[in-house]
Amino acid sequence: MTKLILVAGARPNFMKIAPLMHALKNHPTIQPILVHTGQHYDVKMSGQFFDELNIPTPDINLEVGSASHAVQTARIMEGFEKICVEEKPDFVLVVGDVNSTAACTLVASKLGITTIHYEAGLRSNDRTMPEEINRLVTDAISDVFITTSKDADDNLLKENIPAHKIHMLGNLMIDSLVENKTNIDTANARFKLLNEDKEIELGKDFMPQKFGILTFHRPGNVDDKESLTKLVEIWGKASELVPLVFPVHPRTYKNIQLFGLQEVINQYKQLYFIEPLGYLSFIHVVENALFALTDSGGIQEETSYLNIPCLTVRPNTERPVTIWEGSNKLITIDDILNEITLIVEGKGKKGTKPHFWDGNTAKRIVKLIENL
Ligand code: UD1
Fold this sequence. Notes:
Blueprint (H helix, E strand, L loop, with lengths): L1 E7 L2 H14 L5 E7 L6 H10 L7 E2 L7 H19 L3 E5 L3 H12 L3 E5 L11 H12 L2 E4 L2 H9 L7 E3 L3 H8 L1 H5 L4 E3 L6 E3 L10 E4 L3 H4 L2 H17 L2 E4 L2 H9 L3 H5 L4 E4 L4 H10 L2 E4 L3 H9 L3 E4 L7 H4 L3 E4 L4 H9 L16 H11 L1
The structure holds uridine-diphosphate-N-acetylglucosamine.
The site of uridine-diphosphate-N-acetylglucosamine has 19 residues, from helix 1, helix 2, helix 5 and helix 11.
């Protein structure tokens, strides 16, 4: 039996790990061991994703929790080294670009275990983003590179990774979307508001195609008082053009309270702040939205697949294929109102699906591992 450790740590990892775990179920020659680092630990940030995406309970949970980057990374490394020494896996597979990804790659690589990075080669070329550091570190020492688009292959080649180690196999997040289509379409669409004791319902309080979905959590946008204050004001003004639904990330919500911005939000009746959603309800809201306004990485990909205009408020993206081929557009805070006006007038950006974003990526990855 080939022993394969798969690492999941934070929310955006779970929809990438789920289709792999399903494709590996009852595999005759590969034994999967699922390790959750515990980087995300709330039911809303972690547990409900395991339930809804039908991910088996992790074999091991390191329960590292929140801490500074260095402390969190160190805790993961300490815990994960023990597991690797005990389990002696043939392969470690990490996904994405979170602290858990880089930490486990460092451990496995130093123990001489073949490390596979799914979502390798993405580059924003912006080292102020913690994720970019994680990507660079992970790709510098991984052994096998699975990419989601051709630009990622080119980035790796430029960094002198030999071509035979790079495999463009498509997008696992799209596998999750395809696998769960029916449950997404019928998912719960009643949500509790965060700032008042009231529920709102899609189809009643805000109509399909007549609202935008909002998500913001990047430290660069929400950790700085000035930047978050400006954003909150623009969200408010934008919500007067079209209702906005915002499942708020804990990091953003904490800072809204800390900087005393709740009062501003309360003034806008069409700015709906709701708690973080599970996977099915979240994608249900996205697929019914007129557009997304975000600073997330994954949502740029999901909206491209669903062909829903996405306004990404960032100076760069590590996922340029969503701009070249998909429905994504990079904008500044000052462009938000104009861009939303264009979308409301029916002039939103549309695109096509990138190659291999087709629901079969997990199968291709399992085949690759069988042949390693
Ligand atoms: C992490 C990832 C980021 C990813 C994001 C998705 C890194 C460097 N960043 O950022 O790439 O886009 O996840 O969510 O790995 N918290 C909770 N409950 C939780 C988890 C976090 O309340 O389950 C709070 C904690 O107080 C924490 C804060 O949210 O301090 C931020 O969490 P953290 O994991 O540090 O980073 P994210 O911003 O979530």
